[in-house]
Amino acid sequence: ISQSVDQGKQSTKIGLPVDRLFPGNTLSIEFVLDSDRLAEGRTTPEENVLRNSALDLSEVAHYAELPRLDLFANAGFPFTKFADLSDSTVILPHDPSTQQTSFYLALLGFFGARTGYPALRVAVAYPEQASRAVNKHLLIVGSLDEDTSGTLAGAAPARLEHGAIKLSPSMDLFGFIPWRKWTDQTRRAQDVLSGDPAPAAFITEFASPYDSGSTVVSFQASDAAQFSTMEDFFAENVRLSDIYGNLGLLQNRQIHSFTLKSKVVSYGNLRWDDRWRTWIKSHYWTIPLLLILVSLLLASQLDSWLELRAKFRLEADS
Q: Could you say which of 14, 177, 212, 216 has the lowest number of CB atoms within 10 Å?
């Protein structure tokens, strides 16, 4: 930041909270002038941000655990990792409707608004060609046919069946515990699905079944007109803050978001100690198992030592 005063131009570096870049991947800076200086009639310095200013993110940990629809809704991540979307593939039906095509183009504009660069190298494929998109993030616009894309439909936490939205069966072994987060989120999602009117469209994010390091974001709707409603969210940046988790149900122009049990994709790098703490938070159930294992190991070692000690004492007495 430069500051023009009577003695000349001065420059300084200041720290900015880069973790506050939400929403829209933007950061606002507000200059507050000294009111006492203005009241006394003295001149105030002219302050502005230099054109060659830049944010230094080199010391910030670049790490995220996906799926996280809030990152997609606010910054288009992970598709916007490359500004030209060269590591992304869009899956469109063979005969897309006018609304689906319009929504697809609106999403490209949404990505360009976040990166400041047009999506020149995005690839477009049909559902049966999705398996060829290795090392690509997939963006699906339109329904998934079980015959041509059964792998994708089976990996998603929700799907369309005869025009109705259904949750995919969970493989969680501890899903019967009522107070677990995943169980509560699934129950709440079922309540919304059984409401009147029922949700007519949804957005979901899940790990790609074709590549361990890629994700899939899918937009599904019971009728083509619902894509126009979803387009309003992303083209006009309306209520994007309501989108989070890995499932968003569209009901009466409102998004109900949920975090269902799903496979986690680690994106980025962390120091070994931070990665260990992150792993423990996700697998907290291993803590009692580790404690039991350590206790058994100590008990076995202590038992051997006591037997050896008793043998020595008996031999000494004899």
A: 14
Backbone angles phi, psi at 233, to 5 degrees: -65, -45
The pTM (predicted TM-score) of the whole model is 0.74
Residues contacting 2, CB < 8 A, separation 6+: 9, 10, 11, 47, 48, 49, 50
Residues 210-223 pLDDT 10s: 988 899 999 999 88
Based on its alpha-carbon atoms, the radius of gyration of the chain, rounded to whole angstroms, reads 27
Contacts of 80 (CB under 8 A, 6+ apart): 111, 114, 115
Q: Which residues contact 72 (CB under 8 A, 6 or more apart)?
A: 78, 79, 205, 217, 243
CA 149-219-265 angle, 5° bins: 75
Give φ, ψ of 274 to 5 degrees. -65, -40
Q: What separation in angstroms does the CA of 9 have from each of 2, 30, 112, 295, 315?
A: 7, 20, 36, 67, 90
Pair 193, 199: CB distance under 8 Å: yes
Query: pLDDT digit string (tens) for 263-286?
Result: 888 887 777 777 788 777 777 778
Both structure tokens of 173: 């072994």
